[in-house]
Amino acid sequence: MNSWFTELQTPDMALSCRTKKVLHHEKTPFQELTVYETVQFGRMLVLDDVIQTTVRDEFVYHEMITHVGLNTHPQPRRVLVVGGGDGGSIREILRHPRVERAALVEIDGRVIEAAKQFLPEISCGLDDPRVEIIIDDGIKHVREHRGAYEMIVIDSTDPVGPAEGLFSAAFYRDVFYALTEDGLFVAQTESPFFNGELITRVFQDVAGIFPVARLYLACVPTYPGGLWTFTMGSKKYDPLEVEVEKLPDLGTRYYSPAVHKSAFVLPPFVAELLKEKQGGKPERA
Q: For residues 256 and 260, what is the distance between their CA atoms, to the nearest angstrom?
């Protein structure tokens, strides 16, 4: 068999993976959902012809979007994941015994069901009693839950369609108010090679709302360019001040105390995107 799935990652660049078979395909009310069995990356979840996760490299993304923030906040008891229907972020959040409740708000319930069926090693935490699954619009949920969470993870798709509002200043202000007085949030913020303007805009928005704003990096092979950014906004705690020597061993494969520290060391071309903008205060509601 010589079948290939190709994602047009930019108008001028594509990533192709040889596939063994199509495990699942459907058109949900929100998007086209496909699960492939690939040769290089194993099972792969694709939405609207865009790779979301694979069983080969997902651990990098899911560990880095969760543990950096969870180890920055001293008591993350209530954590919200917006998006992330594959369950990988939830799985990593549950490694922390301090977490009492992990809420997953996913707009497309079919993503969750497909992940449970075809990606069990990623979705394995979704049935944990600490997890609450809410099928709803994440923007709406954040707006309606003030002061509810110590940490919020914005595990979104690319900023198109339903996810576009998750990259707006208005949404980040709502996130600010949905957090406790010492809360923080982390969002995936795309590639510094191909989404520099978005990274600059998002960081400036977050730095204008949160007293602490930080950008950090990880390498995710199936995402455009391989180098990926995450943006943190925090009301109080600075991830650069974490005593990494005191961090627990979580049994992770990419994240570690040393990686926690080094992820914030930005190459000059990435640092230039931030324009040295620092934290500020939110607009009042």
A: 6
Residue 155 annotated as catalytic:
yes
CA separation for the pair 79, 153 (Å, rounded): 8
Residue 257 CA to residue 198 CA, distance in Å, equals: 29
Residues 66 and 109 in one domain: yes
pTM higher than 0.85, yes or no? yes
- Catalytic annotation, pick one of 57, 86, 108, 155: 155
Q: Quick one: 60 exposed, middle or buried, by C-beta within 10 A (0-12, 13-18, 19+)?
A: buried
Over residues 219-276, the pLDDT tens digits come to: 999 999 999 999 999 999 999 999 999 999 999 999 999 999 999 999 999 999 997 5
CA angle 123, 128, 134 (to 5 degrees): 75
Same domain, 21 and 98: no
Whether residue 48 is found in the same domain as residue 63: no
Phi/psi of residue 53, each to 5°? -165, 155
Task: Kindly compute the dihedral angle of the four CA atoms of residues 202, 204, 208, 213, in this order, to the nearest 10 degrees.
Answer: 80
Taking the C-alpha atoms of residue 113 and residue 89, their distance in angstroms, rounded to an integer, is 16
16 - beta bridge partners? 6
